[in-house]
Design a protein that fits this description.
The complex is a heterodimer of chains A (about 300) and B (about 475).
Chain A: H1 2-27, H2 36-43, E1 48-53, H3 56-59, E2 71-73, H4 81-91, E3 95-104, H5 135-143, H6 149-159, H7 176-195, H8 198-216, E4 219-224, H9 229-234, H10 237-250, E5 257-259, H11 264-267, E6 273-275, E7 278-279, H12 281-297
Parallel strand pairs in A: 1-2, 1-3, 3-4, 4-5
Antiparallel strand pairs in A: 6-7
Helix pairs in contact in A: 1-6, 4-8
Chain B: H1 6-21, H2 24-43, H3 47-66, H4 70-108, H5 125-141, H6 150-158, H7 160-163, H8 171-179, H9 186-218, H10 225-256, H11 274-278, H12 283-298, H13 304-322, H14 326-344, H15 346-355, H16 362-385, H17 389-400, H18 407-413, H19 419-441, H20 445-450, H21 454-471
Helix pairs in contact in B: 1-2, 2-6, 3-4, 3-5, 3-6, 4-5, 6-8, 9-10, 9-19, 9-21, 10-16, 10-18, 12-13, 13-14, 14-16, 16-17
The chains are: A alpha/beta (about 300), B mainly alpha (about 475).
């Protein structure tokens, strides 16, 4: 039996030696550290003028540094509105008394409900807020992210950005392929969400966020970030009414809504986009200035 | 706690240590506690049903044995089977029957008021019911003595490595192994660990990587024909990897405890006919259906047409056993038809092979038969995978449309994968094929590997572990775990 034990030790040691660099590769990847800005803020918090919530459109949408405003970006890719609320409640203590909360609305706002990657909230939220919480998963995510194949594949993908089918490149066929795939994805998610009554649940959650902000005296604004025209073609007025506005209108909100989705200053200019629905650095700066100006006009600053 | 989890590995390690540390006379208690804990962790609501079915089968077995005449034994056996099948029928088939009657009533304009009932299917009920039925029938036939030790009998009923999805074992094979004192053997531990690792490999690197790709097509409202073709072929690979992995883990776990379970798969996708396929796929179910459905129904029948009818009925039962839906019934019927057609045309096909001189190139002939069988199996799996009969017929039509098989369309359908995922999947798929190739050339890949230099062996083991750790996708349940 000693022989088996020694063999096992040798094999496990060799496997471990191979695994260590893989684990460290994942730990250093952009996708694993997607919550880095929030984590940095958590360690050294400061009063902020503006907080934005939402998913990737919002995460890639705002950069208020040139305006002189202090800003906390609580948006993360594919973030559900439930986690928007959880993050807001966790970090709103740092919002200045006259601060602004930007609630970003997208095609996915009322559709998203299942958090694909709860791990990224482990360090930025209180454990009790994460559902379902599993201690093994918690320690595995923090210390052995290399054992999560999705994390490893994401890390590889971000390292080899161009290792994609030609037709899957962001701007292949003028961005139409990307927009079409995204549209199919959203429709599929919408179908599932309506079947499982997630939409109503998300609409209620948005109302709760707005009521919470009102109760706390925060200034709230709803926004919709600009997208490229190839994307707009798949999300025309009818589609947006079906996915978003019918639900939003049913709430009869008395909150300003800045809808830049079809803004012509962005729509036909690829220089402002990473892909057809996410702003790049230049787009983000320009868009944030526009929002800032609009907020000033509304008397928010 | 599913098989593919750290929790299970920790749980099982503790059980193995404890098993060999405690005296033999107490091991059944440990195995029973482990089995019920494992079942409770997956389906706590239905532990009571498992206990009840166990007690019922135990006492019925003894009652059958106590009857004096064959006729009395038969009556008790049939009554016992009816009760077991009632439980299975209630939980698994009530809504199927209810929905079907409602649909017929609506069509015929009858008044039918029983609504859909929220009935949860107890985990593993199909598997342990079949084991119980075989136990009662074997006692009636005099092949098996009724077990008097309630503990051992309960383990036979609920032995955790094979409880969820088989292999479906006979009491004759399993019970004596529990009673014999198993000593700690290097070979058993080593072989068991390898089989478990190989199961993890197939499940996490093949099955669970394919599952979302297949689902994206089958859940799509308007898939293309080529996507259906590709997704169906991939589903066949997924289903094999998924189910055979489950059997590998079961066999590996049992072996580490000194128990030998029956092999459930023998490279089924290399079958040269549908009959051959069923002797390689889910072998223990095929053997069960043969011994307890086909053979009794064939008794006294000599006409070919009658035997064919029995074949159809047997496959129909196989289909219904798999799932309570008309798509599974159709799947069973298709296989029954294949089997009958294959038998009926055997002679003609042999003549055709001679006429086309195909039989002069045995290798080409064999691979053509393998390809044909695989495609027939794939076609039937359109029904297995589709969510409804309507969807199944639509998908089957797409599968059979010649334009769906255009190479350019199928190459385009590969874009269902991301390029990175395709490369990763292909790499591991080649490894599995290599493993199968070695197995075909030698009796066992593990034996072949044990004759290689230490460096090569260790490299393979390390590759297995690191691949599972880093690339292993998880989170998908086992397909057969749902039956």
């Amino acid at each position: 039996m000693g022989r088996l034990f020694i063999k096992l030790i040798i094999i496990m040691t060799m496997a471990l030696l191979l695994f260590i660099p893989v684990n460290s590769f994942v730990k250093q990847s952009r996708s694993y550290n997607i919550n880095d800005d929030i984590l940095t803020f958590k360690k050294n918090p400061y009063p902020v003028d503006i907080i934005n919530l939402g998913a990737s459109h919002s995460m890639y949408g705002y950069y208020f540094k040139p305006t002189g405003l202090s800003h906390l970006d609580l948006a993360l890719p594919a973030q559900t509105i439930q986690y928007d609320f959880k993050l807001l409640k966790e970090y709103d203590q740092y919002l200045k008394p006259d601060g602004v909360v930007i609630v970003s609305i997208s095609q996915m706002t009322f559709v998203n409900v299942e958090t694909e990657d709860a791990g990224r909230y482990y360090e930025i939220l209180d454990r009790t807020q994460i559902e379902p919480f599993n201690l093994l998963d918690y320690y595995r995510y923090l210390h052995l992210p290399g054992t999560n194949s999705e994390s490893f594949t994401s890390a590889l993908s971000s390292k080899w950005k161009n290792f994609k089918w030609t037709s899957h490149q962001s701007w292949a066929n003028d961005g139409k392929n990307y927009a079409e795939r995204k549209s199919e994805y959203v429709e599929e998610q919408y179908r599932k969400a309506t079947e499982k009554n997630y939409v109503e649940q998300n609409v209620r959650q948005l109302k709760e966020i707005l009521d919470y902000c009102k109760e706390k005296g925060y200034q709230v604004i709803l926004t919709m970030e600009p997208v490229h025209q190839t994307y707009q073609e798949h999300f025309d007025e009818d589609v947006m009414n079906r996915l978003v506005f019918q639900y939003l209108n049913s709430l009869e909100l008395d909150v300003p809504f800045l809808n830049y989705m079809n803004d012509q200053r962005f729509a036909d200019n690829k220089d402002y986009f990473l892909d057809s629905d996410h702003l790049n650095s230049a787009g983000r700066k320009k868009y944030s200035w526009i929002v800032y100006e609009e907020l000033k006009k509304l008397g928010y600053f | 706690m599913t098989f593919i989890s750290i929790e299970f590995l920790i749980f099982f390690t503790v059980i193995v240590f404890a098993y060999y540390l405690i005296p033999h006379r107490w091991r059944w208690v440990l195995l029973l506690a482990a089995s019920y804990s494992f079942y409770a962790s997956l389906s706590s609501y239905f532990v009571l049903l498992l206990l009840l079915s166990t007690a019922f089968s135990y006492s019925t077995g003894i009652m059958i044995e106590k009857q004096e005449t064959k006729e009395q034994k038969k009556k008790v056996m049939l009554a016992g089977i009816c009760v077991l099948l009632f439980f299975l029928g209630w939980f698994k088939y009530f809504n199927f029957v209810n929905d079907s009657i409602r649909a017929i009533s609506a069509y015929m304009d009858w008044n039918y008021a029983i609504p859909y009932q929220e009935i949860v299917l107890p985990l593993a009920i199909s598997f342990y019911t079949f084991q119980a039925v075989s136990y009662l029938v074997d006692i009636y036939r005099g092949k098996q003595k009724a077990e008097r030790h309630y503990g051992y009998f309960s383990i036979y009923f609920a032995f955790f490595p094979q409880l969820v999805a088989g292999p479906i074992e006979r009491a004759k094979k399993l019970l004596p192994q529990f009673k014999v004192e198993q000593t700690l053997k290097y070979e058993n531990l080593s072989y068991g660990m390898k089989r478990i690792a190989w199961g993890f490999f197939k499940k996490t690197l093949i099955a669970d990587r394919l599952a979302p790709i297949v689902a994206s097509v089958y859940d799509s409202p308007d898939p293309t024909g080529s996507q259906i073709v590709l997704a169906t072929v991939l589903f066949s690979i997924q289903l094999y990897a998924d189910f055979s992995a489950l059997s590998d883990i079961a066999i590996g776990c049992a072996r580490m405890l000194g128990i030998k379970l029956t092999e459930n798969f023998k490279q089924p996708h290399l079958a040269v006919s549908i009959a051959d396929f069923w002797s390689r796929w889910h072998i223990t179910l095929s053997a069960w259906l043969r011994d307890y459905i086909f053979v009794p129904l064939c008794k006294g029948r000599k006409k070919r047409s009658e035997i064919y009818l029995v074949i159809i009925i047997t496959f129909l039962i196989s289909g219904i056993w798999h799932g309570a839906a008309w798509s599974f019934v159709l799947w069973g019927l298709i296989h029954g038809f294949y089997r009958v057609f294959g038998d009926h045309t055997k002679h003609v096909r042999g003549k055709m092979a001679t006429f086309t001189q195909l039989d002069r190139s045995p290798t080409l002939h064999k691979w053509m038969k393998i390809a044909t069988t695989f495609l027939l199996v794939c076609f039937s799996r359109v029904f297995f995978r589709s969510d409804s009969v309507t969807a199944a017929f639509e998908n089957a039509q797409l599968f059979l449309t010649p334009s769906s098989w255009r190479p350019s369309g199928i190459i385009e359908a590969f874009e269902l994968f991301s390029l990175l995922d395709l490369v990763i999947f292909t790499f591991f798929f080649v490894i599995v094929q290599l493993f199968h190739y070695i197995e075909r050339k030698n009796a066992s890949t593990w034996n072949w590997l044990s004759q290689r230099p230490a460096f090569a062996r260790y490299a393979v083991y390390v590759l297995l572990i690191v691949s599972i750790l880093v690339f292993g996708a998880s989170g998908q349940g086992f397909v057969y775990g749902g039956f």
